[in-house]
Specification:
This is L,D-transpeptidase. This protein is α/β, with parallel strands linked by helices. The protein has seven helices and ten strands.
Length: about 280
């Protein structure tokens, strides 16, 4: 029974009760009850029509909702151990000059570690038979081919600095590898040179052309680094390069000469580290 039916019953009962204590006749009560029931029926019918007219939502066609960019953009989380570049590392600037990986590795280490002690420095790449000169801040000031010791090796024999050139055997004609504090000086002919290893009589100087059969000028122009292995151990560079780069760089100051090894590792000789790797350490 709905609300309207329940209400009509209550009203009818009240009317019958009132009839007992009033002058209402039973016929009057019956007429009033009929009208009340008719009103209730009409009200319910109208309500049903109104509800039927309202649009009904379909519950059988529910579709999942996706973000519009769900399949277009993939978000990749950064792994926990991803290297984070540091901004504190320093690098040497080779500018437009091409260089071997070993030369770049060492030059970067020199600047990053401060091993040059704020002095100009030279890197002698024996395998490439090439010289690179940098200022105290690691900016390249010049590069040139170089003539180096005939023999492959990284050490000088004892007392070689006191030996006559004629007594030095071909296998003893090495350019020693290592780090050397260098300074301008004079040779026995009173010509300026850059002393690299004074005890071993190793210096960097203008190319010596006294022996025509050695063809030193032609060797300097050769594209083959092996052609530039001819000296007794000293580092010979073009005259113009010495006058315009070497001499000005070391005038009034000492510097460092780094001679890369032939047979040993760069790290073993210099105790260096990779600046590129260090830049991505956590």
């Amino acid at each position: 029974m709905n609300f309207f039916g329940y209400t009509s019953v209550i009203v009818t009962e009240k009317l019958w009760s009132a009839a007992r204590f009033s002058n209402l006749t039973q016929s009057a009560i019956i007429m009033m009850s009929q009208r009340l029931w008719l009103g209730i029926i009409l009200s319910g019918f109208i309500t049903s029509l109104a509800l039927a007219a309202e649009p009904k939502e379909s519950v059988g066609s529910i579709s999942p909702v996706f973000a519009t960019n769900y399949y277009k953009t993939q978000i990749h989380a950064t792994p926990v151990h991803s290297p984070v570049p540091k901004l504190s590392t320093k690098r040497a600037n080779f500018k437009q000059e091409t260089a071997t990986q070993a030369s770049v590795y060492l030059a970067d280490w020199v600047i990053d570690s401060g091993d040059n002690q704020q002095m100009p420095f030279v890197i002698v790449d024996k395998k490439a038979a090439k010289v690179y000169v940098f200022d105290a801040l690691g900016q390249l000031t010049g590069a040139a081919p170089a003539l180096l010791g005939l023999a492959v090796g990284d050490n000088s024999i004892p007392n070689i600095g006191t030996m006559a050139l004629a007594s030095i055997k071909p296998e003893q004609r090495t350019t020693p590898a290592g780090r050397f504090v260098a300074a301008l000086g004079k040779n026995i002919h009173n010509k300026e040179i850059l002393w690299v290893d004074y005890d071993a009589a190793i210096s960097l100087h203008r190319v010596v052309t006294s022996s025509t059969k050695e063809r030193r000028l032609q060797r300097l122009e050769s594209k083959n680094p092996l052609e530039r292995r001819i000296s007794y151990g000293c580092i010979n560079v073009p005259v113009k390069f010495y006058d315009q780069v070497i001499s000005p760089s070391f005038t009034g100051t000492n510097g460092i000469v780094y001679v890369l090894p032939d047979t040993r590792s760069v790290k073993e000789v210099f105790g260096s580290y990779s600046v590129a790797d260090r830049a991505f350490e956590q």
